[in-house]
Fold this sequence. Notes:
By secondary structure, the chain is of the alpha/beta class. The chain has a single domain, classed as 3-Layer(aba) Sandwich (Rossmann fold), CATH 3.40.50. Helices cover 39% and strands 21% of the residues. Strands 3-2-1-4-5-7-6 form a seven-stranded mixed beta sheet, sandwiched between helices. α5 links the parallel β2 (82-87) and β3 (109-113). α3 packs parallel to α4 (67-75). The structure holds S-adenosylmethionine (SAM). S-adenosylmethionine (SAM) is lined by residues 36-38, 61-62, 64-65, 67-68, 86-89, 115-117, 133-135. Residues 36-38, 61-62, 64-65, 67-68, 86-89, 115-117, 133-135 line the site of S-adenosylmethionine.
Amino acid sequence: MDEAxxxxxxSHIEAEPQNLQRLDRDTxxxxxxxxxxxxxxxGRLLKMLVRMTNPLNVLELGTYSAYSALCLxxxxxxxxxxxxxxxxxxxxxxxxxxxxxxxPYGSRITLHIGDALNIVPTLGKHYDLVYVDAxxxxxxxxxxxxxQYLKPGGFIIADNTLWDGKVAEPEHKQSDRQTQxxxxxxxxxxxxxxxxxxxxxxxxxxxxxxxx
Length: 212
Ligand SMILES: C[S@@+](CC[C@H](N)C(=O)[O-])C[C@H]1O[C@@H](n2cnc3c(N)ncnc32)[C@H](O)[C@@H]1O
């Protein structure tokens, strides 16, 4: 997005809470690939989507620095509402736990370290909202898996579904497995009669899916 427009949006939406500003700075200082962090605009959008859907149980695939998990947690209003978030990279565990502890919303979040494809079936829960933001190559598998644990009427939010615009390039240019994963995910969702879907061209593309 144009930098001036981004700055304009940031100054006309809810301010980024101080603990998340600190987390964002710390992510840039201490972690690899800080671009993966949702950031101010998408973070406020995630919180708003939680406010709008008022979920009890939320599942996140791909915690990274816990920025998005904390935004989702901030939006929760129901008594006992909770988030399970799954991260495969155990080197992130200390960083995540440190920031969950520092946040007023950290106690609403349970961190699970491991592969989401293995962990989700062991959680024994059904979810009102699932945020998919892990390995792009496995989006089709994540979709089939989380649909089994999504309540009727529930929502999936999937990030990076425009993948830098690569999804709209000619097929012969889509040689990497990440692009292929996202393209296949978008195709599966668009053709799935169990759901309604919309793609919002915010940041790298955010797909909202409603299970009928
Ligand atoms: C884009 S980052 C997540 C960003 C975070 N949700 C946010 O918005 O601030 C993707 C994360 O998914 C993790 N990941 C990749 N494959 C995974 C898997 N199979 N299960 C759980 N986490 C996975 C990566 O290690 C990485 O930390």
